[in-house]
Every structure is written in structure tokens, then in C-alpha cells.
């Protein structure tokens, strides 16, 4: 697109889709912001008076809010650490030439194809259930008291389930990156006297830096809004022990029928997500520069 | 020290034999060039010596010690790869220091060795750059720098100049030759370019399909090629091969005569000039319709003008004529 003329034509032609996309995003956002300033409770039909910042102050001073923030960060951080570490380990293993890698790769990737609700239900009922679950059975076999994961360590259990879902994604991206590493670099390092560990640490890991950045950014976006797994397994409880920000917004608007406060929570969540995004881009975004 | 001997070394990838059993001795301090067409097994042979591939049979000795089962790092050899294989996330300094770091050398020693190497290779100004910020020739020098800091018993080069443009290639060729003069370390250099082989080598090993066709000094190969393959491979432009009646007159199945050994002017052969290549110092004519071969290439010293279609007479220098038998071996 060299000339002024062709650039103007291009702008003109993409305008409809830009307008459509803007409307698509701006209308829901605008409505959310609008509702967040109203007293709007589904249990009290009638007038929805403008109440200013009341919904916000109510949401932000709710003790559940702080718990939710902490839980959200723990959930995102925990899953990131597990999936990145596990993804690197799996990528290194799957990159080795060995028999049956094709099948192993498909098996490793398959959790990604299971719907979050389904996988959470499977984990809840078939693995973590303190009576019928596989873990309870194994505990029985070795003769220890079965552990009620979802009651005694609800957040950690959810971190485990979500990590299981996202590990394939991390593995896939990191494996692809690993395979793009020039084998002559590894051979050069081998000739330079680097041990297997040194080759990993000095050559492979730096090569993966960019892919790790991509995984962190993409996963963070999705992990900030984890919802189905919590709804299906713990309902945010016991108490608020496994309530994250998304779940709290849900609880406000659809369990307590308070649309106004729920909207305020939604706006707060958007702002916090953007803060996290800016923070992340500052911290590791420079890895993405060519 | 860096005397490398190969005894009956073989290499197969699955069913296909790439290197049939092969014997070769590389003396300490020699500059040996493996040359041959693409796919003839030069890289494979070099990688066997480096230890990056396992031999399928035979013995490799370095300075008399068996090295067949040693891992690459223990053989005391350094390699310069065709792609340079620099570590992209490290500065030039760290790249060059990497083998020293792996050897657990002290910071002071590392620093002084890196600086000495950078000095030799004119890299001092670039030490804090990354490979991505360097030109092809500079990257090449960094790769060489990374090899020389280890003070290896021998250097292995795998087509190190093939990614450079022609002018740079000539310059780097000279630099590597000078480096060899200075260090007097054994160097094994792989190339498919016979000009590189001729200009750099003390000893050339000509390979075809994994077989050693001939081993000798550049001029030895030029003057006394063992067979037609070597005769045609060494020398530029290629040697002319004439078969049939004219060869029969010399009691041979085929005769070979280099372009520079045919005089233009008088003589028994006659043909029509096709393309002429004027290099200034020399002029090459492609001569057709000689009744000997499709085309004869002829070199005339200096600037000689013949237009396309001109008839010229040629006379081969009979003492420079090579005769080959039916199997392609040279008759002496
Ligand atoms: N890892 C490998 N697996 C199978 N065949 C190979 C492998 N490496 C090289 N070869 C084969 O060996 C032959 C020689 O290759 P190579 O040594 O790279 O040739 P050169 O360097 O002389 O061009 C080629 O025919 C190539 O296809
Ligand atoms: Mg090669």
C-alpha cells in the first residue's frame, strides 16, 4: 500500500468492519458502566435510581473482594508456574527422538479438547471425591485417610484442575519453539564441552524465552476469567475460599440478583485485568521485540 | 599436536552406506581440504571425526590415542559450522567465552583469552554486540574465535564460506590461510568448491560417493590426476575430454586437455568460436564444431578478440595431455 490514494481506499474499505467491531465491544461495555451507577436489584423491581459510586464502594469494601483478589492472583500465578515448568519439561522430553512420540504427543495434547465443565466434573467426581474418587481409593490401598481435596484445599485443587487443562497449550507452544532450535547450535555447544544440563540452561532455555512470554501473556488473559471450574467444583467455597473475581461478580449479580453491584464488580475486574496486562507487557513484553 | 588417523572408518544411515571403509592420515599441522560434489559425504566424514556422528565401524585415533568412543568435547577438536551456529542471545564476548566457561576457566584467564582472540580476528570493537547485529563475515570470525580460544588439537571447518558473497569469500579464505600460518594447528576444511581447495590446502582429499578418489597436494592433483573424475573436478574451467578417434590416436579411450594447455593460432584442430568470456587477464573461448567434443574450452592469455562464428585453429600441448583408459584411470 504505497500511495496515499490506495491507503485512503484501504481505510474506507475496512471502515465497516471496524465500526461493527467497535459497536460489538463498546455497547456491552457502555451498558455495564451504565448499570454500575444504578441501584438495580432484580428482587426489587421498579425504579432504578442513579446512585453514583455507591455500588463501587459496596463492592470494594466487601471482605470477599480482598479474598477474591488474592485468590485470583494465586490461581493465575499457580497455574502459570505449573504449566510453564511442566510445559518445558514435557517439551524437552517430547523433543527427544523416541518410539511412539506421535501417540504420546496426541495424549499430551488431548486435555485441551475437553470442555472445562466436563473436565472439572471428571476431576471432582472421579478423582477427588473423598468416597468414590480414584485418589480416595489409592489412599485406601496404601492405608491412609482419604483427603477431601475440594473441601480442605479448594483453591489448590482448582489450580491443579486448571493446570491440567492448560498444560497441553503450554507444551504445544514450547515444543514448537523447541523444534525450531537450530540443531547446529546444540552441536556447537556439545563441541564446546557443554553438558546436557548446560545445553538446556544456556541454549534451549534462552531460545524458549519468547515462547514462554507468549504462553504467559495468553494464559494470563484466560486465567483471569476462570469461572466454569469453580462453579462446577466448589461454588466458590467453602465460604469464599475459592472465589475469584469473576466468580464474585457472578455471585453478586446472579446469586444476590444485584445487577448494579455486579456491574461495578465487572468494571473493577476490567480495570484490574488491564493493570495486570500493562504490568506484564512492561515486564516481559520486551522479549517479543525482534 | 593434532595427528588424526582413520582406519577402515565406515558410516551407514540405516541401509544406505554413505562412507565405505576408508583409511586416511592427517599429519600434525596440515591444512587438509575434503573436496567433492554435494552429497558425497564430506560433512558426514567431518562429523565422524568431530564425534557428532557415531562410526558404523573402524577406528579414529587422535595423536595415537583411540578416540572412536570419545564424546565430541573430549576429542580436543573445535568446529566451525556452515550456519556459524552462534548463540543468538549471547554477546560476541560471551559466545567466544562459552567453551572456556564450560571448561570452568577463571574470569581473568577467560578475559585475556577472549581479548587475544578478538584481537587476532579484528573483533575487538564488536565484543558487546549480539550475533544478529553483525555482518556475515563478522559472524564467521566470531565462530572462528569461539574455536580458537579453546586451543584445540585441530580445527574442523564445514563449508564455512558458502554463506558469504564472492568478495568476502576471497578475503576470508586468505584470513583462514593466514590463521593457519600463525597457529600451525591442524585444520580440516570441507568444501565443494575446488578453487577453495586449490588455494588453501596443503593436502587435498577428493571424495566421490564417500570414496577417496585421490589424496595429494593441489599441484599434484592438477598435474597427475589419478582418474577422469579428479581430472575434471580439479581445475577451472573444467578439463576438456575427447573420446573416439582422436583419443585412439593417442592409444587411449579418452584424452583430457586443460583449457590453458591449448594454444590458439596454428594447429591440427579447427573449430568455430561460440561464446567468449573476457576476463581481461585471460580470454576463454567456447569452440564448437571441432569434430572432437561438443564444445572445447580454450584459454588464451590476455585480450584476444574472436567474434562468434569465427573459425580458429587450435593446438594442444602434447606434453600436458592426459590419457585415460576405459575405466577412467589415467594411463601413465
Ligand atoms: N542423518 C542422516 N540420515 C540419513 N542420511 C543422511 C544423514 N546425513 C547425511 N545423509 C546422507 O549422506 C549423504 C552425504 O551427506 P553429506 O555428508 O551431508 O554430504 P556433503 O556434505 O558432501 O554434501 C547424502 O546422500 C545424505 O543424504
Ligand atoms: Mg555438507
Strand and helix map with partners:
The complex is a heterodimer of chains A (290) and B (332).
Chain A: H1 4-36, H2 54-61, H3 63-95, H4 101-109, H5 116-127, H6 134-142, H7 149-152, H8 154-179, H9 183-191, H10 196-223, H11 228-233, H12 245-255, H13 259-284
Chain B: E1 4-13, E2 16-26, E3 31-35, H1 42-50, E4 57-62, E5 65-66, E6 77-80, H2 92-102, H3 107-120, H4 136-148, E7 154-158, H5 166-183, E8 186-191, H6 194-200, E9 203-208, E10 211-216, H7 218-223, H8 228-233, E11 240-243, H9 245-248, E12 254-257, E13 262-265, E14 269-278, E15 282-288, E16 295-301, E17 311-316, E18 322-324, E19 330-331
Parallel strand pairs in B: 3-8, 3-9, 6-7, 7-8
Antiparallel strand pairs in B: 1-2, 1-4, 4-5, 9-10, 11-12, 12-18, 13-17, 14-15, 14-17, 15-16, 18-19
Describe this structure as you would to a colleague.
The complex is a heterodimer of chains A (290) and B (332). Helices cover 74% and strands 0% of the residues of chain A. Chain A is an all-alpha fold and 290 residues long. The model of chain A has no long low-confidence stretch (mean pLDDT 87). The radius of gyration of chain A is 24 Å and the shape is flat. Chain A contains 13 helices and no strands. With 332 residues, chain B is an alpha+beta fold. Chain B folds into 2 domains: 4-228, Rossmann fold (3-Layer(aba) Sandwich); 237-331, OB fold (Dihydrolipoamide Acetyltransferase, E2P) (Beta Barrel). Chain B has helices spanning 42-50, 92-102, 107-120, 136-148, 166-183, 194-200, 218-223, 228-233, 245-248, and strands at 4-13, 16-26, 31-35, 57-62, 65-66, 77-80, 154-158, 186-191, 203-208, 211-216, 240-243, 254-257, 262-265, 269-278, 282-288, 295-301, 311-316, 322-324, 330-331. In chain B, the strands form 4 sheets. Chain B has a 6-stranded mixed beta sheet, with helices on both faces. The longest helix of chain B is centred in the middle third of the chain and has 18 residues, at 166-183. The model of chain B has no long low-confidence stretch (mean pLDDT 92). The interface between A and B is medium-sized, with 18 and 23 residues. The complex binds adenosine-5'-diphosphate and magnesium ion. Magnesium ion binds next to helix 1 of chain B.
